[in-house]
Design a protein that fits this description.
Elements (H helix, E strand, L loop, with lengths): L11 H14 L13 E6 L2 E7 L8 H11 L8 E6 L11 H7 L4 E6 L9 H8 L3 E4 L3 H7 L1 H9 L3 E9 L17 H13 L2 E5 H7 L16 E5 L19 E5 L5 H9 L3 E4 L2 E2 L2 E2 L1 H10 L4 E4 L3 H9 L5 E7 L26 E9 L2 E8 L2
Parallel strand pairs: 3-4, 4-5, 6-13, 6-14, 7-8, 7-13, 8-9, 9-10
Antiparallel strand pairs: 1-2, 1-3, 11-12, 14-16, 15-16
Helix pairs in contact: 3-4
């Protein structure tokens, strides 16, 4: 059969249906890592007749779940159009190839949001569909879908986690009062949003000072299907974390201490006895190398990290270039104070021309607070 090459020939209806598939894909947050978020819908006569999304790592992909939905409702999908946010897979992994299933079910047209950058897929799924005589359209809502799957895309290409630095400050840039009081900078809706991020990303990272001063649990406290606690990572160059810290209770979640060979060896052994994992990284001036840590976390299969550090750790992460994205909540409050802390401290930048800049800025309100997010320009 002759291949049909319509990689950018799509309609307003295609955009509308792809957006619905994208919304379905988002329902897999927190369950599919390190796999991508994928949604699929099947359309006949401009009506959605079946839908599915990738729900859990190792389980059926979105396309297969859409076919299951059709079968459960006795829908004949022959000749229908399938909308899928990511190129259907063409290889046998934990599940059979979705491209084969699409061909076998005699779908006549497939609209794809973006190609899969994974080398074992990378255009092969599209080629299989075209070889079977199926019309293929690709690139619908591509930029939005790349952002939705930025964690997966980064991990596939670099094998290191996508790092989101989350901050919360007052209108005058403070994260606490001069007395150290920081509860609460933002209101409940913003805090709920952060817990959703904790569910979405595999790990959360703080410095040891945060543990010493706040003694947090760093768990995910939202009520949703498939809720999970993130892996807790503490950057502690000398291993001085108090052994009674809440975060060391590994019955709640996995905990990793990132330290160096300058650390207290006795404390390391005590931590291991509590079930805590200890990673020894390279170091500079006795401090954990965050770049080396990211390489090691990637090797462990951790594809995303939510950085909720204090000012010192935040600056170190920015300085070492490990931060990919910033999410900064700004509360409409003013507290002042020369001794009040800021979200980024450390040595700081000397000249304004050398400031760290963001791109693709998005601004939205979360309750009474403002969320500013953007990607670090590297």
């Amino acid at each position: 059969m002759k291949k049909q090459d319509k990689t950018m020939d799509y309609t307003v209806k295609d955009v509308e249906f792809m957006r619905q598939a994208m919304n379905l894909a988002a329902r897999g947050k927190g369950g599919v890592n390190p796999n991508p978020l994928v949604g699929a819908i099947i359309v006949k006569n401009d009506q959605i007749v079946a839908q599915g999304w990738h729900k859990h790592y190792g389980e059926s992909h979105a396309e297969v779940n859409a076919f299951k939905d059709a079968d459960e409702n006795n829908i004949d999908v022959k000749g229908a159009t399938m909308y899928v946010t990511l190129e259907p897979c063409s290889h046998y992994g934990k599940t059979p190839p979705c491209a084969v299933a699409i061909i076998e079910r005699k779908i006549s047209r497939v609209v794809i949001g973006q190609m899969d950058p994974n080398p074992i897929v990378g255009g092969r799924g599209i080629a299989m569909l075209k070889d079977a005589g199926i019309e293929v359209v690709c690139g619908v809502l591509e930029d939005e879908l790349k952002y939705q799957n930025r964690i997966f895309l980064n991990y596939v290409q670099h094998k290191t986690p996508w790092v989101i630095m989350k901050t919360a400050s007052t209108l005058d840039g403070k994260i606490s009062t001069y007395s150290g009081d920081s509860r609460w900078v933002t209101d409940e809706p913003a805090r709920k949003y952060v817990h959703e991020l904790r569910n979405e990303l595999q790990a959360i990272m703080v410095g040891v000072d945060t543990v010493i001063y706040d003694n947090p649990e760093l768990t995910c406290r939202i009520d949703c299907e498939g809720r999970r606690n993130p892996i807790r990572i503490v950057v502690d160059s000398t291993c001085r974390i108090p052994l009674d810290s809440k975060i060391l209770d590994t019955s709640e979640a996995r905990t990793i201490i990132a330290t160096t060979n300058k650390a207290n060896q006795e404390n390391i052994e005590l931590l291991k006895q509590k079930g805590v994992e200890v990673i020894l990284t390279k170091h500079s001036d006795g401090k954990v190398s965050l770049g080396d840590l990211m390489q090691r976390l990637g090797y462990l299969g951790i594809d995303g990290v939510l950085l909720e550090g204090g000012g010192t750790l935040n600056f170190s992460a920015l300085e070492e270039g490990v931060v990919d994205e910033v999410m900064s909540f700004v509360a409409p409050k003013i507290i002042g104070g020369n001794g009040s802390m800021t979200s980024v401290a450390g040595k700081g930048i000397n000249l304004m021309k050398d400031a760290i800049n963001l791109s693709e800025i998005k601004v939205e309100t979360i309750g009474n607070d403002i969320l500013i997010r953007g990607l670090i320009i590297k």
